Amino acid sequence: MTDKNKLTVKIYGNDYKLVSDDPKDYMKNVARYVDQRMNEIAQNNKKFSSSMVAVLTALNIADDHFRLKEAFDALRSEASAATAPYAFQQAHSIDVETEKKAQDYEAIGKEFKRVLDSATHYQRELEDVKDKLRLLSYELERKARALDDSNDRIAELEGELKEIRG
User: Fold this and answer.
1) Whether the model pTM is above 0.90
2) How far apart are CA 134 and CA 141, in angstroms?
3) Cβ neighbours around 19 below 10 Å, total
4) I need a labelling partner for 23 at 20 to 30 A (CA). Which of 75, 107, 143, 150 fits?
5) CA-to-CA distance for 53 and 111, rounded, in angstroms?
């Protein structure tokens, strides 16, 4: 069994623990690329949520992936016809880039799922806090009414006391 490389990286302000057969430098480069792309999109769209930034980044990387794959397939076809060494070298370069984009896309997909799960969790917590706030508000109103009733009763008793004394 091969030892996996483990690495903690920061993507869009969040720490992630990566485990991979790939070298750590490669893992760092992939994480850095995803972080840069997310920050570029966030910079141009300041009102977008983290999940929206993640989705747009994933779409951009997927777009790059498909464009590179198309270019790769076209070059591969040309290389087959021409059997030129240069075409094979280009095809290999595009293949490597396509694989890198696929890995980037996968990383964005995982980040998107994590952000979506986190948003769901925080939404549930927010609903719990709202429920508690409603209960406390109800309790406060109930006690305020009880205090008003007590103040009215005190005023009534003070009036009776004045009549008796006076």
Assistant:
1) no
2) 11
3) 10
4) 75
5) 10
Residue 20 CA to residue 5 CA, distance in Å, equals 5
Task: Tell me how far apart the alpha carbons of residues 55 and 77 are, in angstroms, rounded to a whole number.
Answer: 32
What whole-number distance in Å separates Cα of residue 30 and Cα of residue 81?
A: 34
The DSSP secondary-structure symbol of 47 reads T
Structure-token match 């979506």, residue found: 116
Cα torsion for 46, 39, 99, 24, to the nearest 10°?
Answer: -150
> Is there a contact between 61 and 107 (Cβ–Cβ < 8 Å)?
no
